Fold:
Amino acid sequence: MKKNKVGMLGASGRMGQEILLCLEGQTKFEAFLGWSNQKEETGYKHSVTKLEPDLVDKVDIWLDFSTPEALMSALPKIGRSKKPIISGTTGMSEIQMKKLNSLSTSAPVMWSSNMSLGIAVLMKTIENLNLISHFDFQIEETHHKLKKDRPSGTALSLQKKLQKVVKKNLPPAVSMRGGGVVGVHKIWAYGTEETLCFEHTALQRQVFARGAIWAAERLLKKQNGFYVFGDLLK
Ligand code: NAD
Structure:
């Protein structure tokens, strides 16, 4: 069976390397092109700091875990390949999201701030909180000290959804940074006589890498358009 060639944006990073581990032994995907701004070998078949057409045109699907600036600089080059794109990069502005979205007219594009199954289920579970919309809500997140964005993209996605469900503005998410914490998100609901808390803990970064590859398999079968992780669960 022909393997789909993966083009990885952010190949030398924590997620780029987790994805590389997940791709080892895969029957459907091949770690083909690793792009980053680091000169060292990334472990992908071709490690590059420039996206040249001869390799770009061979890629079957793009995975992106880089930075908003890096992704924006790559979009014009990878856009011309009209191949599916999965992005997990967080901290993007509305304009940057629109630029990513604009590619969805010529390819299936999926963006998600969190590629774990647990957070996808939590997103759906939040819908029940309309039953206690009079409670006070607070989102809390903890991540490793090297994480660049604050609050996390997942906290922002949870907040956006929760505000829509309970139809009110909520206080900004509380963010903590330290050590090597992969990712913890909590949604607190405070009533006067009871308290409810949903918690998701990512135990290993692998969960996001596996989720991205799971999503890649599904996105390859989708028509052009913009998708979020939850759309692929259906
Ligand atoms: P990292 O800092 O370890 O890696 C970033 C990568 O981007 C590196 O390979 C770096 O060389 C590359 N890069 C940075 N600037 C560049 C530039 N100008 N040109 C080319 N390459 C450049 O970060 P990470 O922990 O791997 O996370 C990457 C992104 O993924 C972050 O936005 C993070 O929040 C997000 N993330 C998302 C999920 C999810 O499930 N959606 C999970 C984990 C991390």
